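tl;dr need the bound structure. longer version: we got a ligand (adenosine-5'-triphosphate) that a collaborator sent over and nobodys looked at where it sits. i said id run it. heres the input, straight from their email, havent touched it
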Amino acid sequence: MTTAARILVVDDEPDLLTLYELALIREGHQVQTASTLAEARSALAEATFDVLITDMRLPDGLGMELLRELAAARRPERSIMVTAYGSPETAVEALKAGAFDYLTKPVDLKQLRTVVASALQDAPAPARAAAPAASAAPAAPQAAAARPAPATPSPAAPAAPAAPAFEGEDISPQGQAALARLVGQSPAMQMAKQRIAKVARSMAPVLVHGESGTGKELVASAVHACSHRASGPFVPVNCGAIPENLLEAEFFGARKGSYTGATQDRAGFFQAAAGGTLFLDEIGDLPLAMQAKLLRAIQERRVRPLGATQEEPVDVRIVSATHKDLAAQVQAGHFRQDLYYRLNVIELIVPPLRERREDLPLLCQALLARIASEAGSPPLALTPQLMRDIASQPLEGNVRELENLLHRAVALGEVALAGSPGALDWADAARIAAAATPAWPPPAAAMPAPALAAAYPAAPPHAQPPQAFQTPQTLPQMPPQTPSLQAPLPQAPFYGQPAASAQPPQPYPLPSAVAAQPFVPPPAPAAFQPPAPTFAEQTARAAQAYGAPFSLEPAPAAPPAAPVSDAGLPPGEAVASGQTPLPSDLEAWLNEQERQVLIRALNETGFNRTAAAARLGLNLRQIRYRMARLGIVPPGSHAEESGNDGDDGEAA
Ligand SMILES: Nc1ncnc2c1ncn2[C@@H]1O[C@H](COP(=O)(O)OP(=O)(O)OP(=O)(O)O)[C@@H](O)[C@H]1O
């Protein structure tokens, strides 16, 4: 149970301040209040708090300033930003500025208590009277969605450098263990681990980005294990592996009878991950319609199970991963920009193996230890020849390819027993790896034909990875960043299905001559939404696209043409220079905005209403209703719709 914490609440509305204060005092906390930035600053100058809750807009500035000041001064307070309803950008900005979490107005007091309790959990406690109870042992992931966690490798690297310490980060033993599973001590990996430890400590969504096989799932589970949610479940979901028609039920759950075969209520991934972390792997594979639903669930923190009438609150942290260039997917219209922006609050880049070749010996040792323990064989070691073979390969498939290579080497008897005369010691392994580092990318002709790969048939069963590692995407491994990788690999769902149903490993493909392209992390979006074309541009484009009269019924009340002057405003209203004037008819103005958005979506989808609706998170019935209300008529049809949606191929 959480004991008395010191909380500073900053809000300029006295009623709200009292409401928050009473709710928190009832929880046993000591609460101090401030109604301006200046008051908050002086309170912070005099004392240290466990938690700061601040409104965004204050009479003398923005709550964001406090957040930045706390971060710059490395203060221990965990901050919670209260944002206005419908301003997701502010929430994202606050998380980026270091807020632990945010609350949306009107603040739900139950949610306030939950978020404060989360902030206090496992936090440094300089101001508290007593620390919270130690967190329980980690709960097993929920059966519905979780796969078995990979066995912890026990790298037998006697002379390997000592495990790194993460200065300034207070990491639990569970977090340390998860970081240790992420084998590698190169500067690139050290930086990645340092960042994991740092970003784990808030509720901010994390997007893990890296080439295939670099260990993104290990990174995600390390984020979970280092976070205050480590005692909750870690639920990995492969978004590309779930049939589209099941997505909603799988994500949000389903009520008994909501679809054929739903004989009882069923929890979805969000419910399974309650109190823990939901890991959305291959997020780039999520269809657009589901992207809209996911965005809503993340923003509202509520989901509605299929067949339910009520939404229910959910408490999950989202970590997602992709090997795709999501920014390019956004540009191409395959991924919603608002969802990208929402998931990518913090980006974690996992370095490819070519940027950390010095990790090869340690990785080989860790992977061989894992293979031996899974196969029940005595400890295994590299031979000089095997190390030479491995080190001379580009390993474009990263650690997964290395793992596959070692499996095959074990199958072909190309390894030594640890401690035997043929076993390679650490220093020699490091020397060979350093000497044999290939130029990147190696010219095809210069690539050595690795004996172990050339002779490779399918590995015998005893040498194959255990079921936890047999997800079909593990083999075969294609060079990352090649066009062929853009097509989804055949995958079996790893949620709720026995691993035995996964496809068996395929023969190892010889290193291809395809030149690896450098991994380019996606650029941060320049703005939350791209500037929408003007109404005139929309209309002109539509007319051009259809060559036929593009019938747009006149809007109920068009906004004033630019440039706008004060003249159109009600008497007494002045326009501050550079600001858009307030509309004199809000209803008409909103209608016009909606109309422009609809026309744009329709335009960009070739007037396919189903596709346009999906882009906007609507269904066909809703978009048809809105089009009719706003008098938007598809080219070639009449204002009075026949109800035929032939172009969409879908019934309303
Ligand atoms: N640093 C590492 N230390 C130990 N094992 C690793 C490391 N990185 C990856 N692996 C192992 O390599 C395999 C692939 O890792 P993982 O599935 O996490 O990669 P990924 O980046 O998620 O790949 P994909 O994008 O194809 O899903 C797993 O067996 C994992 O345990």
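gonna send this back to them w/ a short note. The chain has four domains: 6-120, 173-349, 356-469, 535-630.
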